[in-house]
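Appendix B, record 7
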Amino acid sequence: MFRDRRASLEAALGEPISVTGLAGPLRIFQRVRGHRHSIDDAVTAWYALRHCPHAKRYLDLGAGVGTVAMIVLWGLGEHAQMTCVEAQHSSLQLLTANLECNGLLDRATAIHGDLRELALPAEFDLVTASPPYFPAHAGTLPRDAQKAYARFELRGHLGDYALTAKRHLRQGGALVYCFPFQQKQRGVDLVTEQGFHVAFCRDVIPTRDSRPLFSVFAARLHGEGATRP
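Structure tokens (predicted):
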């Protein structure tokens, strides 16, 4: 299935597509010259499963090609249902193909749209986000649109993700996200400004001799659960 679908994706997108392992039995399509999944996604998914392991309804914001969403859905098990939203058409094509070829379409819904405009009637136990890390003025934008939107805040920042999560979380639900360690305080402030408190946080050091690279956070709305630094 992956081989045949890769050929159709390459024809549709006009560029080479790779098939790579993700977690457990999961494999994904990615653009060879596009934005690639990284350890940020894997750790965010792990942290979500650690802090909300029994979620039945799950929402992923800015899903990209589905890396965080699919790991979490696989980890939650067959009882869980997942909804994800992605604005970029090329990423949505790959996301849809990834869900289909991994046999997840019966438990997953992909929405094409801007997460800032999302207004679903459902409430979710868990919301995840792997947002862009840098303001648009913080560096030179990549020419490739997928890379640019993945790295720079061209379609909202972490606070916008938190605001959308706030609209969709059920009482007691959790928002789990990642953000660069050098902007750790900003990663807390943008979320707390929307009515959340950070209940748990872990800094990620990629190698023994490295400094922290990014942090993962589990946040809840004020008044829900004990606050921890």
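Remarks on this record: The chain has one domain: 38-221. The longest strand covers residues 169-180.
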